Amino acid sequence: ILIYALDENSKFHQRAKNILTDGKYNFFITSKNISEFFVVCTKLNLDKDKIWGFYNEIKTNAIILYPSGESIKKFEMLIK
């Protein structure tokens, strides 16, 4: 769903984006989901600024489940 929401050319884009931004849903995501998102985006050679912008939206609109508060900071440091 993350890739579809990012890919404006996908026929599933608007539906995926609506699911992620609809206020009636709570959006939870794990650090593993986020790392896989970056892997797929990298393989698809998507624009890094667009990926980071989308990731920042995820952080703003989702509850990220991760082992500790430090783990997400280390993850971000590694993927930069």
Molecular shape? globular
Structural class: mainly alpha
Major sheet details: 2 strands, parallel
Reading the helices and strands in chain order gives: HHEHHEH
Give the % helix: 55-70%
Strand content bin: 5-15%
Keywords:
5 helices, two-stranded parallel sheet, globular, single chain, 80 residues
How would you describe this structure to a colleague?
This protein has one domain. Strands 1-2 form a two-stranded parallel sheet. The chain has 80 residues and is mainly alpha-helical. The model has no long low-confidence stretch (mean pLDDT 89).
Question: What's a concise summary of this model?
Answer:
The chain is mainly alpha-helical and about 80 residues long. The chain has one domain.
